[in-house]
Amino acid sequence: MSEIQEHIRQAMKDGEIKAFYQPQYDSITSRLKSAEALARWVRGDGIIVDWYICESVCKILKEQETDGGKRVPISVNFSRVHVKEPRFAEQLTALVDKFGLDHELLEVEITESAMVNEADRILDWVKSVRDAGFSVAIDDFGSGLSSLSFAKDMPADILKIDRSLLSGNCENEKERIVLECIFSFANRLGITTVAEGVETRQQLEFLRTCDCKKIQGYIFAKPMPEEEYRELCKTHTKIEKTADILKAQAPASAMNLLVSVVFKKYPLVIFANLTRNSFYMMAYENFTSTGCPSTGVFDELIQHGAATMHPDDREAFATTFDRQNLLKAYEEGKTSVSLTTKQIGDDGIYRSVETVDYFVKSESSNDVLVITLCENRD
Fold it and tell me: I need a labelling partner for 43 at 20 to 30 A (CA). Which of 158, 180, 248, 249 fits?
């Protein structure tokens, strides 16, 4: 054992290393939603301290069962060293189960920088932790190697936006655009977003318009010792009067809400360029048939769709949504084309499906575009 590790062990034994807790608040209601456990003094590889803090979190969560305080999930930081632990998920499960806690009360947090040169190993590690019933948070997103590919492939539950993206009061236009895009794709992927290092009213108000879910920063609370945190949980009420939600969340958040409603009503949404004979799938959930390609040639998409229709409807479908016929309808001034048919599902049963093509105009191109909305009517 190294001298530094021995010092850490002795410090823990003497109670010199303690967890501090920084609350995380709902961006709109300003209510306490969760917290992050922080260790003020970390040296060496950090691996011993991480488990020590994790056990401290389990203790406080267990004691909160009976002390009358509000109990919310707490995230614990684990260094990249843990990714190489072959039985990390099992060890974490054993620790949490020893205290009889629900796994949803503890979140595992790992920094984005830990992903360097460890993509495959990290992916397997995150999956094993989530399979054990724990949420996984990616910390410091945007600080270095962020990419859409990273966000797409990593099965994380929570994305913590690095404070470096919140320079000043979010007055820089490029900065605002980047943040809006991050929150938009995170919401579409079903990932909860947390903004770190929020200090000013202007930052908070902007993050609300982006539909950022949770806020962590000095504007609400600094990291605090256990006793202060437990008292906060007992006495917490919302910190401020909530503004009109339509004002607080417009316009970017309102757009996200609108999109989510569209996807609930129309499980199949397709965006197509008739001029260039191409398409891609925008949403595809719980539809009658799940064998549709996600992107490709529009003419081939219609052939595929016609093949899934009832024999009595195949010709009508192929004719109605033939690309040349759609272009002709557009030239005639029509705003949409619709048809209700019987389509066979994956279970072999035919169901009534309404397909509507809406013509849309792009400001940057003269191409003829359509958005296809398909709804199960049975």
Answer: 158
Q: Rounded to whole angstroms, how far apart are CA atoms 98 and 116?
A: 33
Say which residues have a Cβ less than 8 Å from residue 160's Cβ, sequence separation at least 6: 109, 137, 138, 139, 140, 141, 193, 194, 195, 196, 216
Burial of 236 (0-12, 13-18, 19+ CB in 10 A): middle
State the architecture of 266-376 in CATH terms: 2-Layer Sandwich (3.30)
What pLDDT digit, counting tens, does each position of 213-252 carry? 999 999 999 999 999 999 999 988 766 655 565 555 556 6
- Asked whether the predicted pLDDT for residue 104 surpasses 60, the reply is yes
Which residues of the chain does CATH 3.20.20.450 include? 3-245
- Start-to-end CA distance of the chain, whole Å, equals 68
Radius of gyration of the chain (CA): 26
Type and span of the H or E element at 41 = none
Provide, rounded to the nearest whole percent, the portion of the chain with pLDDT above 70.
82
Q: What is the mean pLDDT of the chain?
A: 85
Q: Which CATH superfamily is 3-245 part of?
A: EAL domain (3.20.20.450)
Place of tokens 């530094």: 4
Q: What is the dihedral of CA 29, 34, 37, 38, to 10 degrees?
A: -20
DSSP per residue, 235-297: H---SSPPPPHHHHHTTHHHHHHHHHHHHHH-SEEEEEETTTTEEEEEEE-S-S-----SEEE
Cis check for the bond before 251: say yes or no (omega within 30 of 0): yes
Residue 198 has pLDDT above 90, yes or no: yes
pLDDT band at 305 (very low <50, low <70, confident <90, very high): very high
Residues of the chain with CATH 3.30.450.20: 266-376
Instruction: Give the model confidence (pLDDT) of 120-155 as tens digits.
Output: 788 899 999 999 999 999 988 877 655 566 667 788
pTM assigned to the model: 0.70
Alpha helices, H only, the chain = 3-13, 47-63, 88-98, 119-131, 148-153, 173-188, 201-209, 226-235, 245-249, 252-265, 298-307, 314-320, 323-331
